[in-house]
Amino acid sequence: MAASPSASVEATSSGIDHDVVRPLQLRSYGLWTLTFLSLAVLCGFLARRQSQQPEILLHVDSTQANLGAVASHGEFPVTFMLRNNGRLPIEVISVESSCSCTATTLASYRILPGDSVALKAIFSTGENAGSLSTSIAVIFRGQGRSQLYRQWLQVAATVKPT
Predict the structure, then answer these.
(1) Which residues, including other chains, have CB under 8 Å from residue 40's CB and lie 6 or more apart?
(2) Exposed, middle or buried: residue 123 (CB in 10 Å: 0-12, 13-18, 19+)?
(3) I want to staple 109 with a disulfide (CB 3.0 to 4.6 A). Which of 62, 92, 117, 136 is the partner?
(4) What is the pLDDT confidence band of residue 41, given thresholds at 50, 70 and 90?
């Protein structure tokens, strides 16, 4: 019986030529290895891409409000918009002013990812004259996290006596 030139397995005493079969097995292992490595690289890329967005990121439209020249004995409203650009909900722990001349109210002490809330401040000039400024600290953390963060805001004005 003549062997066909296209046959991939040659007859031997045991019936199979192991030198011809072994390269097929190695190619199979090589394919699995390549598939595994490709998946590992893809998972690493996706994990890195996800970690590029911080878990906790509070964005303020403007951290400074300059009211310019204002009259003494007046009250002047200022609004700061706080936006959660992170992945976790933000819990605002407190809002503190460095001066009793500023009262603050916050619409919500919980800011979901992608949401914004208004921080309203009333800047009272009283009997003061000249340059007047106050700092506002927004103290917050990511939901379920213990580390606290502080975002500083500033309100300034030049008070003209009346």
Answers:
(1) none
(2) buried
(3) 92
(4) confident
User: Residue 96: how many CB atoms within 10 A of its CB?
Assistant: 13
Q: Which two tokens stand for residue 162?
A: 């009346």
Q: How far apart are CA 88 and CA 113, in angstroms?
A: 6
Q: How far is CA 124 from CA 66, 69, 71, 121, 145, in A?
A: 14, 13, 10, 10, 35
Closest CA to 100 of 114, 79, 121, 83: 121
Whether 109 shows a pLDDT value over 70: the answer reads yes
Q: What are phi and psi of 124, to 5 degrees?
A: -105, 125
Tens-place pLDDT, residues 152-162: 999 999 999 98
Rounded to 5°, the CA angle 153-55-110 comes to 55
